[in-house]
Design goal:
five-stranded antiparallel β-sheet, 39% strand
Length: 191
Amino acid sequence: MGVNIDPFNSKNSNIEGLKIIGAKMVTDDRGTVRELYRDSVYAEALPVTINGWKQINLTRTKKGAVRGLHGEAMNKLVTVATGSVFGAYVDTRPDSKTFGAVQTVHITPGVQVFVPQGVCNGFQALEDTEYLYFFDNEWAPGMPGTALCPLDPELGIQWPIAVDTNDLNQISEKDSKAPTIKELRERLNKA
């Protein structure tokens, strides 16, 4: 087989500051090495300066389950260690020119998404999956942020696997009862 090198690449999305990244991967007869993060390369590609990742989480999520949409006060770099997901992102930054925009990304090992602070992040596992989150701030209960209902019809997210809101193995009550984008707009207009 020899050695195959997939170079790092980054492209913009329809959400300002959200980047879809192809990690550098080196594959040979023994397997694959993926660069999850290299500061010198990512510093040029990301729209903000990351002064070190403060917290890294790994979730194991069952096929069909939905997590999110959550937009805490932190920038995130997300990817999968194993499996694959349908990632969904919604811009909830009040001053953003792309407020309300939705971006979806099929994430497999080697595909990453940089999610700017204030953009909601969510996903549905397309198979049993290990999902990685890199945060530039430590999560704390009550920290500022926004949550949206991932099933809000106005968002138009076409989840690949049908979601049963009564099945807590598939979606949490907290996520299914989160505000809609319309409710968020109304709240922001009152502020």
